[in-house]
Amino acid sequence: MPENADHQSPDHQDANHLIERIRQKDRDALAEFIELRRPQLLAFIDKRLSDRLRKKIEASDIFQDLSMSCLGSFESVDFEGRDPFRWLCQQAERRIIDAHRHHFGAQKRAANREVGIHGAGPGNEGAGIENDLAASMTSPSAAFSRNQKEFFLAEALEQLPDEAREALKLRYLQGMQSKEIAEQIGKSDAATRVLLSRSLKRMQEMLSENVAFQTLLAQNR
Predict the structure, then answer these.
(1) Which residue has the higher pLDDT, 9 or 59?
(2) pLDDT in tens, 29-48
(3) Is 92 exposed, middle or buried (0-12, 13-18, 19+ CB in 10 A)?
(4) DSSP codes joined into one string, 22-61
(5) Phi/psi at 39 (nearest 5 deg)?
(6) What is the Cα 134 distance to its own chain's centre?
(7) What is the residue extent of each domain of the chain?
(8) Distance CA 115, CA 204 (A)
(9) 167-202: per-residue pLDDT in tens?
(10) Which residues form the RNA polymerase sigma factor 70 region 4 type domain (predicted)?
(11) Which fold has domain 9-104?
C-alpha cells in the first residue's frame, strides 16, 4: 500500500471538495464539513474543557452552539486562504471561553484579582494590551468581525507557541495568578512571569506590524 494512501482516503477527498465549496461561499458545504469533522471537533472541545466546566456543560453542547453560530456568521467570514477546520477550532475555543464566563463570571474575578503581570502605574506599556487581551477572551462574539480589535488580538494569540498561549489563557480567562499558572504548566513562578511577559511583548510586536490593526486603533483615537 502506498505511504500516502491516507491522503487519498474518501474522507480526505470529501473534505477537500467541501473546502473548495466553502471558499465559493456555499453555506451547505460548511454544514456538511462540520458534520464530517464532528469526531475531531468533539475531541478538540473535550480536551479543552476544564474539569470544573465539564461539570456544567458537555462537549456536545459546545459543538451544537459552535455549529449554529458558525453557520450563522458564515456570510461575514472570508475563507480565501483559510483552513476551515482551524477556523472552527478557533471558534470552538471562543465558545468554551463564553461558557466559562457564563458559569463562573471569569471576567469579574479577573478584574478583582492580580491587576497585571507587570503591575499598574506609569511606564507600564503592557497594561493596554493586557486589558484588551482579557476583553478579547471574555467577549468571543466580537471576534466574528474582522473590523474588531478583539479579532486581531485573538489571531495574534493563535500564532504563539502552545505553552505561551495556554499561560495567557489561564491568566486572562481564568484569572489565575502567576503562582497558580506555574503549578498548572510545571514551571517556577519566576519562569512563568518571564513567559507571560515575553508572550505579551511578542503579541505587541505582531500587532504593531499589523497594518489593519494599527489603522483600527488610529480610527478609534
Answers:
(1) 59
(2) 999 999 999 999 999 999 88
(3) buried
(4) HHTT-HHHHHHHHHHTHHHHHHHHHHHS-HHHHTT--HHH
(5) -60, -45
(6) 12
(7) 9-104, 115-221
(8) 19
(9) 988 887 777 888 889 988 899 989 999 999 899 888
(10) 153-203
(11) Rna Polymerase Sigma Factor; Chain: A (1.10.1740)
Enter the C-alpha cell of residue 212.
489593519
pLDDT digits (tens, 9 = 90+) for 52-91: 888 888 899 899 888 988 888 888 888 988 899 999 998 8
At 134, the pLDDT band (50, 70, 90 cuts) reads low
Q: What DSSP designation does 123 have? A: T
Beta carbons within 8 Å of 125's beta carbon, 6+ residues apart: 204
- Judged against a pLDDT cut of 60, whether residue 8 lies above it is answered with no
R_g of the chain, CA atoms, integer Å: 19
CB 194 within 8 A of CB 167: no
The amino acid at residue 107 is: Q
- Exposed/middle/buried for residue 120 (C-beta within 10 Å: 0-12, 13-18, 19+): exposed
DSSP states along 155-191: HHHHTS-HHHHHHHHHHHTS---HHHHHHHHT--HHH
The pLDDT assigned to 142 comes to: 44
Question: Residue 84: what pLDDT?
Answer: 93
Q: How far apart are alpha carbons 4 and 11 in whole angstroms?
A: 14
Q: What is the CATH number of domain 115-221?
A: 1.10.10.10
